[in-house]
Amino acid sequence: MLNGWVLAVVFITVLVSLCNPRGVSDIAFSSSNPPSFSSPFDFSETHRLFSFLSTLQYDFYRQSCPHAEKIVSSSMALIHSRRQDVSASLLRLFFHDCFIQGCDASILLDPTTGDDTYSSEKQAIPNLTLKGFVEIDQIKEELERVCPRVVSCADILSLATRDAVVLAGGPFYPVFTGRRDSTRAYFEEAMAELPRPDDNINRTLYLFAARGLDERDMVSLLGAHNIGKIGCQFILNRLYNFSGTSLPDPSIDPEFLNLMRFKCQEKEHNNTHVSHDQVSPASSPTPEASVETLRRSTLGMSYFQELSPSLSLEGGFDTHYYKSLLSGRGLLYADQQLMADENTGRLVKGYASDDGSTFRMDFARAMVKLSVLDVLTGSQGQIRERCGF
């Protein structure tokens, strides 16, 4: 009986949050300058969003593997105690999975040995620096010992990411489970459809809108950059060769430009950077040694550290990302571009204007929406014994 009440409370809470999110949507706008995002009472959006409830469930494994979520959470707690940057790694890994053909664990598939005609999403340029694969494999192995071929890799990644967010000081949000794993990867789609560090605001808005994510979802999800570091390989073109000009981005404040160049030495650029021109298509993937060098590089910049250089601790789920954008200190061109659009700029200002509660609520809401994109359920897909193949 108690479990039934818990499920009812969770469902109602999420429904109310998604239909009428608090925060920026409640900020007063003048009649001459209305926001462009959809009304919080857009029932067509609500119906589309909650159609997943016919297949996904809260605590889907309560009978088939009753300790599944506890195993994931305890494993994540242990992993996080040893490596706190795992939260940022899993957030990025989860986003890259869901953004391409939905949350189906296709990002976890390894290349096929001896098959030069097939490339995994791991080999796509935007994914070369992804981390967190080892940790997901560890959790999967533990679950396979307890419940063989029951818990999907897609659900493991979804649950582990939520737990990683909470461990990093972020908000809790419910994860509905019952996903199944993709039988294939989507290399071409990953090459073409993931947001890039140098995207302008129009392309970023288009990519999110194509997945049913509105401006508020986009701006709050990009707030994940609050944690972890932005790798220097994503910044260097902006510092030395913006848009192929052999010059820095003219919009960067000279003082901040010098700081960024100091933190991201050209020596590191020469040693570890792999340009888009150097990476071949599926017939000739990037050499594994180059990929590993990129993934192991620790050179990068933190939004929290750059906004508050006197502080030694890493920032959590706060407002420093948005405050950095307001001060013109966006590390990525795509981040700073949020201030180039009137509506997204207003959202940034709204998130930066309070104690972080608005951002945290909207981030949780957006993560629920992201986590149910184009999921495979029922007889679709498969349950992999190993996440890599």
TrEMBL record:
The set of disulfide-linked cysteines is C65-C147, C98-C103, C153-C387, C232-C264
Q: Which GO BP terms apply? A: hydrogen peroxide catabolic process; response to oxidative stress
Query: Where along the chain is Ca(2+) 1 bound?
Result: D97, G102, D104, S106, E121
4Fe-4S is among the record's keywords: no
Q: Which Gene3D superfamilies match?
A: 1.10.520.10, Peroxidase, domain 2
Question: Mind listing the UniProt keywords for this protein, alphabetically?
Answer: Calcium, Disulfide bond, Glycoprotein, Heme, Hydrogen peroxide, Iron, Metal-binding, Oxidoreductase, Peroxidase, Secreted, Signal
UniProt function note: Removal of H(2)O(2), oxidation of toxic reductants, biosynthesis and degradation of lignin, suberization, auxin catabolism, response to environmental stresses such as wounding, pathogen attack and oxidative stress. These functions might be dependent on each isozyme/isoform in each plant tissue.
Family assignment?
A: Belongs to the peroxidase family. Classical plant (class III) peroxidase subfamily.
Q: What is this protein called?
A: Peroxidase
From what organism does this protein derive?
Cucurbita moschata
